[in-house]
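Inverse folding, one chain.
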């Protein structure tokens, strides 16, 4: 239900009585009025020490990091289970050395759009290497992962087309479809039978099905073995976002589609460089004709500054290191299995995760706030996930496991969580 001026006027806004969803669809004749009431909500959350977002990181994303703690107004050391640095490559000495050398040659940025002078030689090489990784004809590198989905979906879809999304698809997928003006249909998470029913009712020839390889908030895998045959049955195209899966799944590191042996059945494969690669940026891979078209019609590509050359050089070095030495991925999987086991033994609900992305379910929005405050007081930093990333009654902590975590650190994380969750039992 949409809120309006009557909802808040004359009241002292207690953050315990509301969630972010209450301000998302605020109705008012004043364009900025929602911000006035939201400020009161945030101010009260800060006073209650619930505002754990956007605290400045004072060090890089290692397994321990220093953070400026807003609540204590001091720099504190935290155990880090929040970063996507799954393989630790952002600190790999060979990668850092390559980036430093590239800075001397190319400077700090591309300073132009990719269709003009921003398309550097390192980006060209990176696109070739990603195409090999994904077993696709052509890849296009974008400045961010978000802009990749936005650009690809708004570039290929038109008003009247239909995008059929797994209901848990990433926000960038929903946003790209909305920008295109296409119709959005959803199917129940990982449910091929429901997808079949939805596609049967569309009666459209121009249909794109969108799923994630590893679901970013749940850590489970796309049921591609069930979804691919349904797409083929109705002639629907398939897009798979492999953001959290690239370099983690598949013999070559191509992702979940490679893991299940269906990469050839995927029409558009999306990935990011901000997870296992330890950098920033995104890519889309597909057949040569389609990717050439999308390079010219993806507005978030055409009208954005290109990826910095030194970033591309660093990613190329990551690919080189990854091919030569698979040990970091092996360590990641050992740590992932260990954490799954320990969290389950502690009686914590980790959903159906099958990956290094591990949700710890917390329930209501208010319960999440109290839990997140208490774990941060104890020096544990995790993802704190509520609306709009998930519904306000399905909130969670999100743990990101890396190859660099030690057993001692993982045990400490589990023990802290168990203590806090035990304290929060009714």
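Residues assigned per position:
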């Amino acid at each position: 239900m949409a809120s309006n001026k009557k909802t808040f006027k004359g009241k002292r806004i207690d953050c315990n009585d509301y969630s972010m969803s209450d301000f998302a669809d605020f109705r008012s004749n004043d364009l900025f009025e929602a911000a006035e009431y939201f400020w009161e909500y945030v101010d009260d959350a800060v006073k209650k020490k619930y505002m754990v977002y956007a605290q400045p990181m004072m060090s890089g994303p290692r397994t321990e990091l220093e953070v400026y703690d807003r609540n204590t107004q001091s720099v504190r050391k935290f155990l880090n289970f929040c970063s996507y640095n799954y393989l630790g490559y952002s600190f790999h000495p060979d990668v850092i050395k390559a980036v430093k050398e590239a800075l001397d040659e190319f400077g700090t940025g591309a300073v132009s759009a990719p269709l003009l002078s921003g398309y550097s030689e390192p980006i060209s090489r990176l696109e070739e290497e990603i195409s090999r990784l994904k077993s696709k004809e052509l890849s296009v590198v974008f400045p961010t992962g978000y802009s990749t989905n936005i650009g690809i979906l708004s570039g290929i879809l038109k008003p009247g087309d239909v995008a059929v999304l797994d209901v848990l698809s990433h926000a960038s997928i929903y946003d790209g479809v909305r920008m295109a003006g296409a119709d959005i249909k959803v199917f129940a998470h990982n449910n091929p039978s429901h997808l079949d029913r939805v596609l049967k009712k569309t009666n459209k020839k121009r249909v794109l099905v969108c799923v994630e390889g590893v679901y970013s908030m749940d850590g489970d895998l796309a049921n591609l073995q069930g979804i691919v045959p349904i797409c083929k049955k109705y002639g629907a195209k398939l897009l798979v976002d492999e953001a959290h899966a690239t370099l983690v799944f598949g013999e070559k590191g191509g992702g979940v589609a490679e893991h299940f042996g269906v990469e050839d059945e995927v029409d558009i494969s999306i990935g990011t460089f901000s997870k296992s690669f330890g950098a920033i940026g995104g890519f889309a891979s597909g057949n040569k004709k389609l990717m050439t078209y999308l390079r010219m019609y993806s507005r978030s590509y055409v009208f954005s500054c290109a990826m910095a050359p030194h970033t591309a050089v660093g990613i190329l070095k990551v690919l080189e290191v990854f091919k030569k030495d698979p040990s970091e991925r092996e360590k990641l999987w050992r740590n992932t299995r260990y954490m799954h086991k320990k969290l389950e033994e502690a009686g914590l609900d980790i959903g159906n995760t099958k990956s290094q992305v591990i949700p710890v379910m917390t329930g209501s929005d208010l319960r999440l706030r109290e839990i997140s405050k208490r774990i941060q007081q104890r020096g544990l930093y995790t993802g704190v996930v509520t609306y709009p990333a998930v519904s306000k009654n399905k909130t969670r902590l999100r743990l990101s496991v890396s190859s660099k975590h030690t057993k001692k650190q993982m045990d400490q994380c589990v023990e802290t969580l168990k203590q806090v969750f035990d304290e929060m039992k009714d």
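The longest strand covers residues 74-81. The chain has a mean pLDDT of 93.
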